[in-house]
Structure formats: C-alpha cells, structure tokens
Amino acid sequence: MAKMQIYAKVERYKYHIKFACAMVGNIPNFTKIDILRCFLRFNKNTGRQDLAKELELGEGTVRTILDILKSKKLLDSTKKGHFLSKRGTEILGQIYDLISFPKNVALQNIYPDSKKIGILIKSAKNLKELYKLRDVAVKNGADGAIILKYEGKLHAPESGYEQDYEELEKYFDFKSDDVLVVAFSGERRLAENGALAIAVELSNTLKKFISEF
What we know:
The chain is of the alpha+beta class. It has two domains: about 1-95, Arc Repressor Mutant, subunit A (Orthogonal Bundle), CATH 1.10.10; about 105-210, Gyrase A, domain 2. It is built from eight helices and seven strands. The chain has helices at about 1-20, 30-40, 50-55, 60-70, 85-95, 130-140, 190-200, 205-210, and strands spanning about 75-80, 80-85, 105, 115-120, 145-150, 155, 180-185. Helix 2 (about 30-40) crosses helix 7. The termini are far apart.
C-alpha cells in the first residue's frame, strides 16, 4: 500500500507539472479526456457556465473544447448555445451503449476523504493485468482506482481476499460481466479523468473517439 501511495504521488506530481506547463503559451490546458467529459454532458441541455462548473474548468477552456467538438461536427450551435448534431447524437448514443455517465459514489472503508467517481463499463471481458489499468488512472491524475466485476455481486478480480462492495451496487443497474471502475482523488475532476481513462483503455470505440482530437 505504501509503495502504491508513493507511486501515485509521483505520477500526480508529473500530471500537475504537465498541467501547469500547459497554462503557458498556446498549449491547451485540458486533455483529450476532458473533451470526452464535456461531450458526455450533452445527454441533457446544459449551458457553458454549468459545463465549466461541472467540469471544473474555466469558461474560456470550455469554449475552446466546444469549438473543437463543433469542428468535428459533433455539435451545432446557435445564439442560444450548443447542442448535439446528428452525428454527435449517434456517437453519444454509441458511447452510452458502452458506459454509464460518471457518478459520485460513496465507499466509506477505502480512502474516506477522497472524491470517488464510478463508471459502469458494460459487458467488459478479458480483464487482465489490472495493475496496468490502475496505472492508467494514476497517470491521468487520479490517486488510484478500484476495478470490480459483477457476477451476481461485485468482486475484485485478481484479489486474494473477500470484501463487501454491496454499498456500490445501488448506483448502477448491473448485469453479468459488467465492470465498475471507481477512481479516487482529492479533486473530483482528476477522479473522473482517471475513471474515464480506464474506460477508454478497455473500449476500442472510446479509443477511436479520443483519437479524433
């Protein structure tokens, strides 16, 4: 556990250094995962100020992300704001066929002081080398992640001990072979980035989406 915490701190330091450097010059101060986070929120009507608050990004940054999504013909806009294009509606539907919207979840016995974001990944199979997936979360700003599989109940694959995760089952409608990723961090944005980064790693559809940017 101590080694994992040290590794997480080092990777988080690298993330913040990269993010701080991105504040200088013309380098964008957001990531491809932030673009995905923004796009996911078009499952409902939302304004730029609300997006900035939810994403924990500045309004100028959100404006840039919206322009990028529009340039890829995923959004259209009028004076009233941005909304999904026909292509955007199709692609967002495909994404939500694969994952849930990121949710705040409570898990009292594990890092109780951290923000925790859960994402359901539907019918995720061939889970292997889970430590590499946890590393993906950490490299994207999270302090760590828990990866659970649903087979009648939630359990941790590749784990040598039993733990009760029943408190997490109320957040999602689980089916057999679904996977729940819970990433945690002191900041909600970084926890969400970590959870979505794992989802991207497990989905060719999400990898293809991210590759457009």
